[in-house]
Automatic annotation (TrEMBL):
SUPFAM superfamilies: ACT-like. This is UPF0237 protein FD09_GL001785. InterPro entries: ACT-like_dom_sf, ACT_dom, UPF0237/GcvR_regulator, UPF0237_ACT. It comes from the Bacteria. It comes from Schleiferilactobacillus perolens DSM 12744. Transmembrane segments: none annotated. Belongs to the UPF0237 family. It holds the Pfam family ACT_6. Residues 4-77 form the ACT domain.
Length: 88
């Protein structure tokens, strides 16, 4: 399953490294990534591929908690839901 993951927070050293390390530990492959910094605010959007049989709710919770521990907001959505919302 492919997912869209967004990361938002105050810019600081190591955000990309921390998030990509966490995703690797969860066996999420990064297929595409984009990030920008606007007036001190960091924003990253990435397309990830999850392993088969991933518990999506548990993954959402784990990424939310990780984000909170890093002072970031991390959200994950299934790509098909994200695509449907963008086509409205």
């Amino acid at each position: 399953m492919q997912t869209i993951i967004t990361v938002v927070g105050q810019d600081k050293v190591g955000i990309v490294a921390a998030v990509s390390t966490k995703l690797a530990a969860l066996h999420i492959n990064i297929l595409d990534i984009s990030q920008t910094i606007m007036e001190g605010s960091f924003t990253m959007m990435l397309l990830g591929k999850l392993p088969e049989q991933t518990d999506f709710k548990q993954l959402q919770q784990e990424l939310t908690e990780f984000g909170q521990s890093q002072d970031l907001t991390i959200r994950i959505q299934r790509q098909e839901i994200f695509d449907a919302m963008q086509s409205l």
